[in-house]
Amino acid sequence: MKKLLLFLTLALFATTFSACTAEQFSRSVYEGARVRNESLKSTPLDQTKGGPMSYDRYEQERQGDLAGRRR
After folding, report:
1. pLDDT over threshold 60, residue 15
2. What is the residue-wise DSSP string for 1-27?
3. 19: exposed, middle or buried (C-beta count within 10 Å: 0-12, 13-18, 19+)?
């Protein structure tokens, strides 16, 4: 019984912990790719006026697109 309780506690903790870090992982990958792309641009002509959007802006647009497709 104690082993089952320990297993369920660890499983709950692992699930909760992985859900909390999934957004941070996605944000880190997106921001890392954005910064890398900026660093590869060698001339000012290659750079756009507004620059790439932040992860928060990307997530808002993505959620908006998903909401628009559901209708």
Report:
1. yes
2. -HHHHHHHHHHHHHHHHHHHHHHHHHH
3. exposed
- CA distances 33 to 24, 25, 29, 38, Å, are 14, 12, 6, 9
pLDDT digits (tens, 9 = 90+) for 28-62: 888 888 888 877 776 666 555 566 778 888 888 88
The dihedral over CA atoms of 32, 24, 56, 45, expressed in degrees to the nearest 10, equals 0
Q: What is the dihedral of CA 14, 17, 18, 19, to 10 degrees?
A: 120
pTM: 0.41
CB within 8 Å of 61: residues ≥ 6 apart: 53
CA separation for the pair 7, 9 (Å, rounded): 5
- Residue 66: both structure tokens together: 């998903």
